[in-house]
C-alpha cells in the first residue's frame, strides 16, 4: 500500500475510467433524478441524499418535487411546510438551508450556472457543487463522497486517512485527475454507483469486480481495512424525559430555537437528566400542578444520532388545572400533525396514541 499517490500511476487513469463507465452502463440504478439536466431537481436530489440512503430518500424526492416543482414554488412556501415535508429524513439543517437558498436563487433570477456560484448556495459544499455542475451542465468537476473515497482508496491502495487535511487534498486531486473530462456527468455517476453497489463497505463481491486485476487492496488482501479514518468520534449518551402534557383537548408544545439540530421543529416538554430518572425526580423537576396525572408511555427507547445516543422516556401528563410554561404553548391536539416534528417525537406520539 502507499501513503501518497504518485503521478506516474495516472497512466492507468484511462483504464480505470473505461472499466467504471462500462460497468455503469450495465448496472446503473434507474433513478428519477438521473438523465436530466434540470439543476433545480438535481440540487433537490443531492441535498436529500446527503446523509440519506437512496432507498430512503427516493419517495421524499418524489413528494418534494410534486409539492415544489420549481425553485419559485419552494421559495414562496412556509418554512413549517418545508420542514413538515422533510419530517423523518433527519439533519433538518438541510431543509432550512434548502429553503434559504431557494429564496436567494429567486432573488438572483436564475439557478447559478457555474461551479463557483453553485458552491456559494447555502448548504452546498464541494461535493454537492461538483455534482450539480457536472450533472446539470456537464462541467469537469469530480465528485468525492464516501463511495468515491472507498473505491479510490482500495483501488490505488491509499492509506492516507480520508478525514485529514492531507487526505482530503490527496483524494480530491486524484479524483480530478481521473475524471473523464469529455463525459464528467456519466463518469461521476458511474463512480458513485460503483461504490454504492459493487465496492460496498462490508463484504464486497471482489470476485466479480471488473477492477480486481489491478486493485491494490484486493491484491494485498486489505479491502476490509480501507479507507482509513484517523479520528474516532466520541459518542455521548444523554438521558431525556418528554412530558406530553394535555389540558382538556389541547397539548403543550415548544418550537426549538436557532442553533439546534432540530431547529424549527416542535416537541413536548423536555427535561434532561445526567442518568436514568425515576418518576419522583421527574415530577419534582417538572414543577407541574400537584393534581397532574402521569402515565408512562415510553420507557428507555434508544435514539441514535451521529455523535449522540439518546435514552428516552416519555410520560403522558393530564392536567386538571391550566398552567403556563415559558416558551411553550397549548395547541389543539387534533392539529398536532400540522406541526413538524423529529422522527423521535413522532415515535413518542405513536406511543401516546396507542395508550388511548
Account of the 3D structure:
This protein has 356 residues and is an alpha+beta fold. The protein folds into 2 domains: 7-220, Hypothetical protein, domain 2 (Endonuclease III, domain 1), CATH 1.10.340.30; 236-354, Nucleoside Triphosphate Pyrophosphohydrolase, CATH 3.90.79. The chain has helices at 13-27, 39-48, 54-67, 71-75, 79-86, 93-108, 115-119, 126-137, 146-156, 165-178, 184-198, 216-219, 279-286, 343-354, and strands at 236-247, 250-255, 266-267, 269-273, 293-304, 308-319, 329-332. Strands 1, 2, 3, 4, 5, 6 and 7 form a 7-stranded mixed sheet that branches. 34% of the residues are buried.
Q: What attributes does this structure have?
A:
356 residues, alpha+beta, Endonuclease III, domain 1, Nucleoside Triphosphate Pyrophosphohydrolase, seven-stranded mixed beta sheet, 7 strands, globular, disordered N terminus
Blueprint of the fold:
Layout: H1 13-27, H2 39-48, H3 54-67, H4 71-75, H5 79-86, H6 93-108, H7 115-119, H8 126-137, H9 146-156, H10 165-178, H11 184-198, H12 216-219, E1 236-247, E2 250-255, E3 266-267, E4 269-273, H13 279-286, E5 293-304, E6 308-319, E7 329-332, H14 343-354
Parallel strand pairs: 1-6
Antiparallel strand pairs: 1-2, 1-4, 2-3, 2-7, 5-6
